[in-house]
Amino acid sequence: MGKNEKQFVEEITPMEVDFPQWYTDVILKTDLVDYSPVKGFMVIKPYGYAIWENIQSYLDKKFKETGHKNCYFPLLIPESLLNKEAEHVEGFAPEVAWVTHGGKNELSERLCVRPTSETIICSMYSKWLKSYRDLPYLYNQWCSVVRWEKSTRPFLRTSEFLWQEGHTLHETYEEAQEETLQMLNIYKEMCENLLAIPVVTGRKSDREKFAGAEATYTIEALMHDGKALQSGTSHFLGQHFTKAFDIQYSDREGKLAYPYHTSWGVSTRLIGGLIMVHGDNRGLVLPPRVAPIQVVIVPIAAHKGNVMEKVDELYNELKSSIRVEVDDRANYSPGWKFNEWEMKGVPIRIEIGPKDIENNQVVIFRRDTLEKQKVSMDNLKETIEDLLDNIHNTLLSKALEMREKKTYTATNLDEFKNIIENTPGFIKAMWCGDEKCEEKIKEETGATIRCIPFEQENISDKCICCDKQATKMVYFAKAY
Amino acid sequence: MGKNEKQFVEEITPMEVDFPQWYTDVILKTDLVDYSPVKGFMVIKPYGYAIWENIQSYLDKKFKETGHKNCYFPLLIPESLLNKEAEHVEGFAPEVAWVTHGGKNELSERLCVRPTSETIICSMYSKWLKSYRDLPYLYNQWCSVVRWEKSTRPFLRTSEFLWQEGHTLHETYEEAQEETLQMLNIYKEMCENLLAIPVVTGRKSDREKFAGAEATYTIEALMHDGKALQSGTSHFLGQHFTKAFDIQYSDREGKLAYPYHTSWGVSTRLIGGLIMVHGDNRGLVLPPRVAPIQVVIVPIAAHKGNVMEKVDELYNELKSSIRVEVDDRANYSPGWKFNEWEMKGVPIRIEIGPKDIENNQVVIFRRDTLEKQKVSMDNLKETIEDLLDNIHNTLLSKALEMREKKTYTATNLDEFKNIIENTPGFIKAMWCGDEKCEEKIKEETGATIRCIPFEQENISDKCICCDKQATKMVYFAKAY
Predict the structure, then answer these.
(1) What is the predicted ipTM?
(2) Where, by residue number, does the polypeptide cross the bilayer (chains A, B) (predicted)?
(3) Which of A129, A272, B282, B377 is geometrically suited to a Cys-Cys bond with A155, CB 3.0 to 4.6 A?
């Protein structure tokens, strides 16, 4: 280990020693994010924001392909609107920020900074919707929301975060149900195809569902430390809100009817997942399709001969289809640069010096496997494109392998507790469906039901907690 | 005038009768925007938001091409930070929304919802910036801001609006000055090239500049009713904020220095300008490059022969490079559809029926000139692309002509008042530079100095107000 490398590695606490500290070291040292002067609020720095932009543009395209349109609803919601759906207000009122003054004047009604927009959007839908011909409503907005959290961690749980929230209305129960699952599938596909994160899909238990939902569906990912991350949710809201907000339309028979309703969202939390699924003790490992910089070119002996000329040539060749940068800073050594870009998780590094040019080759370093190889300069763009795909697939397989290794089954509570304490991960177990068992397990172990997976297995006939007849197999885990 | 047409036209108040009502009719009836349950806040509907998305993607590309990166800073700013720059707090404190409670707890310090982000961003820059090597800082964010306005109009002045705000730091005065003007030029170019809106560029008077700026530069457009719209601003902030926030770095000589600072922004207000520059008594007229739908295809006698087949063929041919939609709604007549799409300002309508197919032609209607013509189906994509460019150029010329027609010169106050009362528009006049004259003119006429244009003319030697030696030619106007 060279001096430079050591210096870098020492900056990041090894994850085996202290996983939370490893996470904090990585996000701060790689310039993804910083703490702000307001407790619980984060500043997303350019390198972190560029990841979010890639997630946005991927999803926005999928949303539009499936007929959704973007719009924008107000940031502030009157207290009386928030109060209209009983379960919703109970769930959100304790964690909203209240605006009480505009300029020097006290407001006649408090306004909350949106924690989510069902209420304000439903109040508008109620005004707009007239006929079955107007349906479906397929709208989405990209914005920030505020939830007053007591204990926060950048990306994972912050008092403000960026997200998208889709809000749709449909004529029939079935159509709304289909939409709910379609959007869940788009999230799942995005996690796998963009972020290289495998997810378990399923339904939330009633205890864990969204405040006001009839059913919440979720994608759950497993982190390096064996904790689960709820990475996106899609809610089937039935007619809970449409009745509370009196959204009625004239149906095909000319009668007044309430539409069926869905909402769904993913947030900057995904960036936290990205870090905790792929990162290692050198720092970030970014999957190529979401990496702000996919390839960094580091010139060796840049002052010599035609090195910079060749570097420029290469850069110009790659940049049409690859997010590539040249690190030509004169005041840093190549070794220093290598370590910095490794820490920042750039998938591929190209080194090019006078000897490489003589041999018509470059040195390629893969961040994911830490392998170095020499490749020909001929058809370099195709080589790199293939390699980026290969890296994506390798990362996805590795993450899947890790998840499978950390997925256990338990048939009794002792086994369950033993796993949680010694080898945390997903635990597949049978459940009777009673909230009391769910709560007891949470109290005794800290683990919650992450989801009732679509893919059911019959592990045993008895509930892991009460020994009564089990009705479903569920995934338990401690979670972020 | 057919019955359908009449019905539509009657829905919109003619602009000559009541311009503000015309504006309100147009924005509501074309589904750009709606009023929300919170006074002064607007809902941007999908058709309006799609215009904003086109502005965003155009500008975001320009920002990135000039080296800027996006990031995200918190929505809420502690009162103590807002108070740090004296002029700034004086300008903004009276119009901010205050968050006083998080959940059930009163906060120890009030937080304002950002009215603009100089203060929170400078507090972070002060933490981050170490060396001249880190400069320049070229950052931007897309977000919403809140300013508690008493009198509001959708897009033009609302208590919340969407915008982008660039915040940059530089080593030298000259470099910051260059950045300020570079961004102003990007705004000007965007107005002309995307929105087909010609603008006058120049500097704001000290009275009209941004609270805390050393100099504010502006782009000013003229609306149909002769009122000006400040359409974008770029501020040279000097060291006002960098000193107030103690942003220091180690310069090339190793000494501590304060950087120079700029900020610049445009907002959803541009959409208001778009409407009031190009719209007519039938509704919106959207310039093609920013129009959410550039071409609408309306089938005639859709049930007959191969009409829908041909429509699909056409649609598939155009959609690779043109934002095209087919209006195949069965429950509306072609005439009804024509009027609706005219009202919504779609630049080109294509009509296609059995006879057109026989003759291998389509009927093309231009929204800007209201002209209909028959064109061959051969090379239709090229024909349409050329026509879209032609429409853009025609709209820009027309707007320029309108502005020139409504730009006057005045050499004394009587002339000035006569213009303002009878033929409102831009008034070019000489000014001594004294704020007292500026205020007197505002009091007596309602007109303000829109800018001290870069292109100076010598109209006379005397200030239009006090007859003393004039130092500059300025543009006056009543403004939104």
Answers:
(1) 0.95
(2) none
(3) A272
